[in-house]
Design a protein that fits this description.
Layout (H helix, E strand, L loop, with lengths): L14 H11 L15 E5 L2 E4 H14 L10 H24 L6 H14 L4 H10 L4 H25 L4 H10 L5 E11 L6 H19 L5 H8 L10 E6 L5 H9 L9 E2 L3 E12 L7 E13 L6 H16 L4 H8 L3 H4 L4 E6 L5 H9 L9 E2 L3 E14 L1 H32 L2 E3 L23
Antiparallel strand pairs: 1-2, 1-11, 3-4, 3-6, 5-6, 7-8, 7-10, 9-10
Helix pairs in contact: 1-4, 1-6, 3-6, 4-6, 6-15, 7-15
Length: about 450
């Protein structure tokens, strides 16, 4: 079924995870506007700027996360450049999103903020007070949430247009997993090389990665601290953590190594497309599934009224209320679908969506369906796509073991492809962007940051 109206992102992490990350790096003040006249510009990014106060807030947030562990952080100037580069990438992604027509309405921002408050088990008013205690304005926090949503939606569009997973790929991965459900928790350190690296650049990077490995082997620095201090990867400030990966998510060149390693081990330097890497096997677990997996499935039909640049939230809600009133007055559901529904895929089937699991079309839609009795019609339900009027037709218990496995494998392969393509896309956009550093090293020239400081080693 082509679920084009679904609010669930395809091959992308949930929006809420990105929103919660707002506080972790940007401190809710990624785009300060009400600054003092003396505020300096830290960097110019195309037609936008990053203010010194923005950078200072982001730095302060990182420092607070490493309170008591400051020795794990790189020198101040290197950390400042790492954080500034992240802020630059945010600016570039937001501009790209807006330039390609991505928009986020006020109701979506409010819904996301409510979700952040709920996940922290506080009210929105308490969240507002917390933001103020952290030294930020709520307007800045709203702006950062909106930008995170824009980036998430850009990434979703990118996945839908650039990433595809064939049935043959899924079949091959399932065959490879037949005798192994093992997953690996990995971390890495990347010493990057530019495209077309010269022999001198390769030799310098090789010396640096060897030095980092020597520090780890001697116990002078743990892996996470070395990643924060020396890695060129976007996840350096997270200690290089790559999370859990199944074997089909690990490049073939590294997969055999993982099978032979024990938790805690670190590979020798590995040469890849992006440069030299050190990989650490953190943990191993058995994620295999056995036996039937019974889930509740729902059968429902719906009417969709979309929101877009030409239809406001209030207009869509008013139209949905009118249609709901017609149904209450005795109008046939399939007739209203034919006349008014804007989900073209289900419109020709009377709005019928077939059988699906609760969260298949997103939490808002699924929650509304689960709350209905069979044949009951809902009030208008707001999702990312617009307003839905839903009628639940039935429920059943179903064994989805094979279906679930295929979906998981598809998600795994898609996530790996998306990660590779998205990182390549960001590097391309970063290279095309005009960036003028106004503070720190290199502020006199428009260049990407220099390599992080090399570790001292016994070999010089």
């Amino acid at each position: 079924m082509n679920k084009i109206f679904a609010s669930r992102p395809l091959l992308a992490s949930p929006v809420l995870a990105s929103l919660l990350a707002v506080g972790s790096l940007f401190g809710g003040a990624a785009y300060a506007q009400d600054t003092q006249p003396i505020d300096r510009i830290a960097a110019v990014v195309d037609e936008d700027v990053i203010l010194k106060t923005e950078l200072d807030r982001a730095l302060a947030n990182i420092l607070s996360q490493y309170a008591g562990r400051s020795e794990q952080l790189p020198p101040r100037d290197v950390l400042e450049r790492q954080v500034l580069e992240r802020l630059i990438l945010v600016k570039i992604q937001v501009a790209q999103a807006l330039g390609t027509g991505v928009r986020v309405g006020d109701p979506e921002v409010e819904q996301a903020i409510a979700g952040i408050a709920n996940s922290n088990r506080i009210s929105v008013d308490q969240l507002r007070q917390q933001v103020a205690r952290d030294g930020s304005s709520f307007a800045d926090f709203r702006s950062s949430v909106r930008d995170e949503l824009l980036i998430q939606r850009l990434r979703q569009r990118f996945a839908q247009t650039r990433v595809s997973v064939s049935d043959a790929e899924i079949d091959a991965a399932l065959a490879a997993q037949a005798n192994s459900g093992t997953q690996y928790h990995l971390a890495h350190i990347l010493i990057a090389l530019p495209e077309g690296a010269t022999p001198e650049q390769i030799a310098t990077a090789q010396k640096k990665v060897d030095g980092v490995k020597a520090l780890i082997d001697k116990g002078e620095m743990d892996f996470n601290a070395a990643a924060v201090r020396y890695s060129d990867s976007p996840n350096a400030l997270e200690g290089g953590d790559l999370g859990w990966r199944s074997m089909d998510e690990i490049p073939a060149a590294f997969a055999e190594l993982m099978r032979k390693m024990t938790p805690g081990q670190v590979t020798e330097p590995l040469r890849g497309a992006s440069g030299f890497q050190l990989l650490k096997l953190v943990e191993v677990r058995d994620a295999s599934q056995s036996g039937p997996k019974m889930v509740t499935q729902y059968h429902a039909r719906h009417i969709l009224i979309r929101t877009n640049d030409n239809v406001s939230d209030a207009q869509a809600k008013a139209k949905a209320d009118t249609l709901r009133a017609r149904l209450a007055g005795g109008a046939k559901f399939e007739d209203v679908v034919k006349e008014s529904s804007e989900d073209l895929t289900s419109q020709t089937k009377g709005g019928d969506l077939g059988w699906f699991m609760q969260d298949e079309f997103g939490p808002e839609f699924g929650g509304a369906v689960a709350a209905l009795a069979d044949n009951e019609i809902s009030a208008p339900v707001r999702t990312q796509a617009g307003y839905h009027i839903v009628q639940r037709l039935g429920t059943r218990q179903s064994d989805v073991s094979d279906q679930s496995k295929r979906a998981q494998v598809q998600e795994t392969i898609g996530r790996r492809k998306l990660e590779e393509e998205w990182n390549r896309f960001l590097r391309e956009k970063r290279g095309e962007a005009y960036v003028d550093f106004r503070i720190g090293k290199g502020s006199e020239q428009n260049n990407p940051p220099a390599e992080p400081a090399k570790p001292a080693t016994s070999g010089g």
